[in-house]
Amino acid sequence: MTDVFTLRRMVSDDMTSLCRSQEDTILRDVLRELGNPKAAEAEMSAGQAEVTLSLGGRIIAVEDKY
Questions:
Q1: Alpha helix ranges (H) inside 1-66
Q2: Tens digit of pLDDT for each residue in 18-45?
Q3: pLDDT at position 51, please?
Q4: What's the angle, vertex CA 47, arms to CA 46 and CA 50, rounded to 5?
Q5: Would you place residue 48 in the very low, low, confident or very high pLDDT band (cuts 50, 70, 90)?
Q6: What is the three-class DSSP state of 60?
Q7: Gyration radius of the chain over CA positions
Q8: Contact by Cβ (8 Å): 44, 1
Q9: Torsion, Cα of 15, 18, 22, 24 (10° steps)
Q10: What are the Cα distances from residue 2, in Å, to 10, 50, 54, 56, 66?
Q11: What ranges do the domains of the chain cover?
């Protein structure tokens, strides 16, 4: 689990370089929903949380024009 939190913290710290355009909203939205990586890591370390995955259909598929 340490690797997961390390990767999440790295991505969160480099948001400005990963999402340079205002149109790059998907990654920003996902990370915002995940919340603070340090707080989540502390909860998992204390045994206060369980890992869950919820999928939702928020992203709209765009047809390729070509």
A1: 2-13, 15-18, 25-34, 37-45
A2: 888 877 788 788 878 877 877 777 777 7
A3: 67
A4: 135
A5: low
A6: coil
A7: 15
A8: yes
A9: -110
A10: 12, 15, 21, 26, 43
A11: 1-66
Widest distance between CA atoms in the chain: 51
Please name the amino acid found at residue 27. Answer: L
pLDDT at 47 over 80: no
Q: What is the mean pLDDT of the chain?
A: 76
**Overall residue count recorded for the chain in this entry:** 66
Q: Return all residues near 25 (Cβ < 8 A) that are at least 6 apart.
A: 19
